[in-house]
What we know:
Elements: E1 3-9, H1 15-30, E2 34-42, E3 55-58, H2 67-78, E4 82-84, H3 88-96, E5 103-104, H4 109-116, H5 118-127, E6 135-136, E7 149-153, E8 163-164, E9 176-180, E10 185-193, E11 199-210, E12 213-219, H6 224-237, E13 242-250, E14 256-262, H7 269-272, H8 279-287, E15 302-304, E16 310-311, E17 328-329
Parallel strand pairs: 1-2, 1-4, 2-3, 4-5
Antiparallel strand pairs: 6-9, 7-8, 7-9, 10-11, 10-13, 11-12, 12-15, 13-14, 16-17
Helix pairs in contact: 3-4, 4-5
Amino acid sequence: MKRTINILVTGIGGNVGQGILRNIQAYAKENEQFMFRIVGLNVTPISAGNHLCDKTYEVEYAYDENYIPSIMSICKTEKIDVIFPSTDYEVYYLSKNAHKLPKMAVSPTETNEVFLDKYKTWEFFSKYQIPFAHSYLPSTYPENAFQSYILKPKEGRGSRGIHINPKNIKDFSDDYMVQELWTGKEITCAFYVTRQQKLHGFITFERELQSGATAFCEVIQKYDSELEKIIQKMMLHLKIVGSCNIQAIVTKEGKIMPFEINGRISGTNSIRSQFGFKDIEYILEEYVFDKEPTVPKITKGSAIRILMDVIYPNSELKEPKNTQTDHFIY
């Protein structure tokens, strides 16, 4: 009889969660001696990722007081072996309660606090003299400190709540931050740190965004040496576990300027697995099968995302919790 691996994936409506689901399915096809069963979670009963799961649950937002009890109950009912969080808040709250839950490749809560709050990220990088876009709180911003700037929520995500060069910074509370706006190529660098605190590898894309998500990207390696220095210095002063992501601008002069860190699996996970960086596979290998993760073999190439439709016949967006629905893809 095949061993069943029960996997919980959160945020299945987003591009991160959907990528995780597709990567798990690809890994399952290559390891047919096991039975992989995927349980998906989202804050709505029907979402883009439902059709990739064996069972789905509607749950509260991560910061809701009932979220952790719900996760604990689901993990017990479904006999979950490993959890894949896909959003920043879920990583934070799940890491705070890791001792109550199945295995996860997440950094300690102290690290997630730094990455969740972009201003704390700036303070950390500044303290250890690691390159990062200079930042202020609106209340402390010196007039004309930056020629051009971006104002964004400290705990924002997906390019929401962004303001470019607003006229009166003092109109904004300190829930926001003011960051020097750099121009140039945007790059995203995903790296993976093992349970033994070793840098397992990384991959870098030059990319273009649409609505905060990668729409087009190309593998680039010309900045690898400088990026590895930044990663190693981060790891020297902060305990990082699992997959992490650096977003940065490369200026016309070739200077790499990080402006955001995501302490979680990022939205390009479904793309980078096709170019030899398989962080979903590494997590399964380490946390389910207790073995050394496969060595990355990075290849060159580019990727474009396309639109697709998932149809759930005779279904409403607000259906009863914990149901499975038929579907087809168009």
